[in-house]
């Protein structure tokens, strides 16, 4: 192993003293990787698999003593990974098993059977971790058992023994980093070196990918880490599974916790009273609880000592308030979006002109969405109303004779035009022809734009029928003259008739 590396001057004394044992560990990892690839598994070993591999190998008595000790093996692995030109890499990844997430650290050496194995294993760790988070969100438990947590908070018990942060992924991600209960100075430096690599090549790429996939919501706490007291210097960014109902429920429960004896001894009494008085108004109550938490955070920045769970809960409550408001806003927007899609689907399925209102009926869809259709603010629908005048936001919809919409698609519009023309030819009723012409804006938009959603033949049919309709309103002598001469009415004459009809209807 050491002969394969050109820079040996920085090897730790501990690694040099145990170079034979380190070489055996290295060879065991390399062997396990080779066997895995030969079986088509493309997997690198974890610590337990390395230990099993070592036990199956013959060593001298001294090597057996060293390699039979898990702590020694782990320390040598860290030393090899912390070298300026690493002999091996320690790569963590998330695993979804038994409805929960866990972390496994895999040990990777440059392999003789595959090129670029290090780069590929880093990428594979990120990809697998993304899939694990997806599995957790779809099939795992990402919601805290708040009944137990609230009971503990009300009775003044510590939260330390409770699993009260299941909505958060950052709690697990920090376990990607290697730690040691009693490290010496050399081991501390080695751990720091390895952990910087883990953060750069696994943790940050994983967080970035999960954000791109909208799997997580991240709230930065960098301002608390920078220039704060010792107890805030390691405050993590808050990373939540992007399940809005869970985040909302978490904030509501944190607000309840702020009122309990666990926090009351440290909280501002006036703010506590204001929060209790505001319980009847949910939004005000949440704002007051956020103020209490924010005041506690300011005290922490000035040196207030709080137990880690209380400190964390106060920071989270203060930071979540704005996010909670955004979640509520997103929920309202999503509800409006879903409602809009339902209405658009109803108009689409109708297959022709959809009557939103007639003289005798009330609006069949909400006024807000009706106005959006009339204002041409919904890409998939067109609308108009009777009397056929230009829309104005001050118009009282209840007083209109009729309001109509149509799904903006060539097939739907073709059906509507065919029915309108057929009705006109059979009965002389020109109402649908005029409604369609006004709705489709055939006299206002260029043909190039119209033909994107109106079949050319249907557009010609509609215009011909509309021309006949307007000619019926000409004086008899004018119609006779046009018939005898075979002339067409001028555009100006038709526009004049159209304008007169609109004035009469208004």
> What general form does the structure show?
elongated
How many helices in DSSP terms? Answer: 22
Q: Count of DSSP E strands?
A: 7
Helix content: 55-70%
Order of helices and strands: HHHHHEEHHHHEHEHHHHHEHEEHHHHHH
Classify the secondary structure makeup into a structural class: mainly alpha
| Mean pLDDT over the residues | 88
Radius of gyration, in Å, reads 36 Å
Distance between the termini: 93 Å
Instruction: Please indicate the count of domains.
Output: 3
Give the strand line-up of the largest sheet. Answer: 5-7-6
Low-confidence stretches: none
Fraction in beta strands:
5-15%
Largest sheet: 3 strands, antiparallel
Features:
506 residues, mainly alpha, 3 domains, 3-stranded antiparallel β-sheet, 7 strands
Quick take:
This protein is mainly alpha-helical and 506 residues long. The protein has helices at residues 13-17, 19-38, 47-55, 61-67, 70-81, 117-139, 146-154, 170-173, 185-212, 222-225, 244-258, 261-264, 269-277, 282-301, 308-350, 367-374, 410-427, 431-440, 447-450, 456-471, 476-485, 491-505, and strands at 89-97, 100-108, 216-219, 238-241, 354-357, 381-386, 402-407. The chain folds into 3 domains: 1-142 and 177-213, no CATH class; 143-165 and 233-339, no CATH class; 351-505, no CATH class.
